[in-house]
Amino acid sequence: MSTVTIKHAALVLLLVGSSGFTLVPRDEVAQAGASGQRAALDAGQLFGQDIVPYARAHAAPLTEVARAIDEDFDAACQRYGRQASQAFPCSFWVHAQGSVESIDSGSRVGKAPLAGTGVEDKPVALLVGPVIPGTAVRDAFPDLSYDDFGDQGAFARFSSALNDQVRAVIEARGPLEAGQQLSFNAVFSAWDGSDAAFELIPVEFDPPPVTDQGAAP
Amino acid sequence: MNTLCRLGSACLVTLALGAAAPLAVAQDTADKGTIAILVNSLDNPYYAAEAHAADAKARELGYQTLIQSHNEDVNRQRELISLAVGRGVKGIVLDNADSSASGAAVQYAKDQGVPTVLINREIPQDGVALAQLTHNNVQAASQVAQAFVERMGEQGEYVELTCNLADNNCVTRSEAFHQVLDQYPEMTMVARQDAKGVLLNAKQSMDSILQEHPNVRGVIAGNGPVALGAIASLQAARRDQVVVAGIDGSNDERDAVRAGHLYATAMLQAQRLASDGVVVLDAHLAGADEGGPERRLYRGILITEDNAGRVKDFSYSDE
């Protein structure tokens, strides 16, 4: 749905239910937005039907992104990431592999540090909940923009709903154990690359192999 | 010399901020006409920083400026906008008096051919203002709340002092606080009061709360003055170990962070936002399609003792 905004999507979902997408003229979309139909967007549907496939198509190897960030954060953001404006951190879709070193559940922001990721200069951890902090999933998906919501609270609630979908992905994967080998697509965000670690939010475990080597940022 | 006069290096007319006072004029050699800059109380350092930055940018771009305060009075705001329109201003930079009740005044100016750029506070209507520039309150409040909960060890009794629940920005911050904090079941909010954004109210509220809830371990505040009011109360009660967090990033908050009284805050980029508002207005007046979306957000920068030294007058130095 790269050509539609959330206003479009909300209206389309209302009009055609689950039967598919139909682009509508911008003036109708504007009317829909003005009448408060933005809230009709379904986070679960968007996550499953749009965001996960988008991540598959656009995730770059974590090692490649990490190297690029080391060299020049702004250039890395431009090449691999998405930053809607300076009000948001830069968010990166990545594909990563590694083995679980341990499960750190001392905080509700649970983490599974990973070994063998190929990233040498920074620790890498998978965020496993139950608290998924931040808005990286929302911010990394280019068809979601604040201007389409026009209300910070609604925009934030939609991000929380997407993080709920991440929790569901983690729960569906089942309990992690030390020594398990993982392969997953994930997202993380950063303001300037100075973070002490890569903390990855998974959106899909064991994604299908990427057949298009041009999977580009 | 009053506040208005300090805002402009060549201020010609400065009068008291009372309801009957005519618009103050800051003037230089500009010839591109006049921009009105209307903000809340200039006694508040945040709004003073906004007005200062907008004034400086406007004069740099060749405008004269009219600077005035509506003191969060919607009627006063309407009068000021009418006066500004009557004086033939080219445009208005407005931090409005009430998010939900200011649309009509902005529409009036638009109907008279005077574009308005809103800063800090948005209005619900699209297409009325030329642009709406505001802080990413959710991002700022979420980062503050995450820092707060980590400092609290994810457990304990805490108090929320809101800044002013008639202000949508404050409501948004409070919602963002709770989107984070409510995910921690061992964090218990024992009291929540609206301190109206005022230091003294916050101190008095906190004085009472401490009597009733002596085991409070944290206070999260919706703006800087409220956080500082809570700190004043806690210091008087010798409760220096209570974790306090706020949002604003004023110089006073910065100093409280450096002194260890305030654990964290988020600095709102008041100067940048106000200055950019003038740039947007100038581009429009020049007939250029500036091209940005109507609603634009600005990051709040998390401030702790590590970077507090970079804060000055709601501006952040990267070096």
Largest sheet features of chain A:
5 strands, mixed, barrel
Q: Please identify the top-level CATH class of the largest domain in chain B.
A: Alpha Beta
Sequence of strands across the biggest β-sheet of chain B: 1-2-4-3-5-6-7-13
In what range is the share of β-strand residues of chain A?
15-25%
Distance between the termini of chain A: 17 Å
Task: Give me the number of helical elements of chain B.
Answer: 10
- CATH first level of the domain at 60-205 in chain A: Mainly Beta
Order of helices and strands of chain B: HEEEHEHEHEEHEHEHEHEHEHEEEE
Based on CA atoms alone, the radius of gyration of chain B comes out at 20 Å
Poorly predicted sequence stretches spanning 5 or more consecutive residues of chain A? 1-37, 213-217
Describe what is shown at a glance.
Chain A has helices at 6-16, 26-34, 43-58, 62-71, 73-80, 136-140, 146-149, 152-173; strands spanning 60-61, 81-82, 90-100, 109-115, 124-130, 181-190, 198-205. With 217 residues, chain A is α+β, with helices and mostly antiparallel strands. In chain B, strands 1-2-4-3-5-6-7-13 form an eight-stranded mixed beta sheet, with helices on both faces. Chain B has a four-stranded parallel beta sheet with strand order 9-8-10-11, with helices on both faces.
Q: What are the main properties of this structure?
A:
heterodimer, A: 217 residues, alpha+beta, 5-stranded mixed beta barrel, 39% helix, globular, disordered N terminus, disordered C terminus, B: alpha/beta, Rossmann fold, 2 domains, 8-stranded mixed sheet, 4-stranded parallel sheet, 21% strand, elongated
Would you kindly provide a written description of the structure presented here, covering whatever features stand out?
The complex is a heterodimer of chains A (217) and B (319). With 217 residues, chain A is an alpha+beta fold. Chain A has a domain at 60-205: OB fold (Dihydrolipoamide Acetyltransferase, E2P), CATH 2.40.50. Chain A has eight helices and seven strands; from the N terminus they run αααβααββββαααββ. A five-stranded mixed barrel of chain A has the order 3-4-5-7-6. In chain A, a hairpin with an 8-residue loop joins strand 3 (90-100) and strand 4. The longest helix of chain A has 22 residues, at 152-173. Chain A is globular. By secondary structure, chain B is of the alpha/beta class. Chain B has two domains: 3-129, Rossmann fold; 137-267, 3-Layer(aba) Sandwich (Rossmann fold), CATH 3.40.50.2300. Chain B has an eight-stranded mixed β-sheet with strand order 1-2-4-3-5-6-7-13, with helices on both faces. A four-stranded parallel β-sheet of chain B has the order 9-8-10-11, sandwiched between helices. In chain B, strands 12-14 form a two-stranded antiparallel sheet. The relative contact order of chain B is 0.13. Residues 1-23 of chain B have low confidence and may be disordered. At the A-B interface, helix 8 of A face helix 5, helix 6 and strand 13 of B.
